[in-house]
Design goal:
The chain is an alpha/beta fold. It has one domain (2-228): Class I glutamine amidotransferase (GATase) domain (Rossmann fold), CATH 3.40.50.880. Helices cover 28% and strands 25% of the residues. It contains seven helices and ten strands. An eight-stranded mixed beta sheet has the order 2-1-3-4-10-9-8-6. Strands 5-7 form a two-stranded antiparallel sheet. Helix 2 (67-81) crosses helix 3. The longest helix is centred in the N-terminal third of the chain and has 15 residues, at 67-81.
């Protein structure tokens, strides 16, 4: 049985639609809740797969949230060893930081449903399954493209939406894992204060989700494809 460690920061920001293909690919996975359960106790370089999920905090908030330093250290070890890592939102930002890139807040919150524009390189990767498909965007931070990384996707608001380093390291600023029907409601409740402060009506996000009904199947195909290409 292959092993996957999943670092979760907010309970409802979980694997979502990725859980089924991960299990089908033969992985036994365990959640590690940041700041509660600590980090994976196994050898940091030898766990088959590390997945780092999103959170409403910034990479630059290490003084406020010390577990971020531990995650960066964990990532640095795995990245140097070339071990598989997939990061979503904060997870992608942490990968970028561990690779030496700058991560910073932007002046605009990108919250809502919409497609990403794939680069020519992105169109040859598993992200091709998401072409022209609305995904969930929920962030106000961005990052520079890490040295040696390949730029895969962008939006008008955020240039660096996804990148990879070889076949084993993938970072996505957006949220392909969130189901537009079963998965969005906990976000609307859990992030109610942020939505209110940003002047975003949760009803608009529910309405926007209706156009993303094909996302779960395409996201499962995308993740399955990526898992099959890993060099373990």
């Amino acid at each position: 049985m292959k092993t996957a460690a999943v670092i979760r920061h907010v309970h409802f920001e979980d694997l979502g639609t990725f859980e089924e293909p991960l299990t089908r690919a033969g992985y036994e996975f365990q959640y590690y809740d940041a700041g509660v359960h600590g980090l994976p106790a196994t050898d940091r370089a030898t766990t088959d797969l590390l997945i780092i999920l999103g959170a409403p905090v910034g990479v630059y908030d290490e003084d406020k949230y010390p577990f971020l330093r531990d995650e960066i250290d964990l990532l640095t070890t795995r990245l140097k060893a070339g071990r598989p890592v997939f990061g979503i939102c904060l997870g992608a930002q942490l990968i970028a930081r561990a690779l030496g890139a700058k991560v910073y807040p932007t002046a605009i919150k990108e919250i809502g449903w919409g497609p990403v524009d794939l680069t020519d390189a992105g169109s040859t990767t598993p992200l091709r399954h998401l072409a022209n498909t609305p995904v969930l965007h929920w962030h106000s931070d961005s990052f520079d493209l890490p040295k040696g990384a390949t730029h895969l996707a962008s939006t008008a608001i955020c240039h660096n939406q996804a990148f990879c380093v070889g076949s084993n390291i993938l970072g996505a600023q957006f949220h392909p894992e969130v189901s537009p029907v079963a998965g969005i409601e906990p976000w609307l409740v859990g992030h109610a204060v942020e939505l209110s402060s940003a002047g975003i009506d949760p009803r608009a996000l529910r309405d926007g989700a209706k156009a993303a009904d094909s996302l779960p199947a395409k996201a499962r195909d995308m993740f399955t494809d990526w898992l099959q290409g890993l060099q373990l």
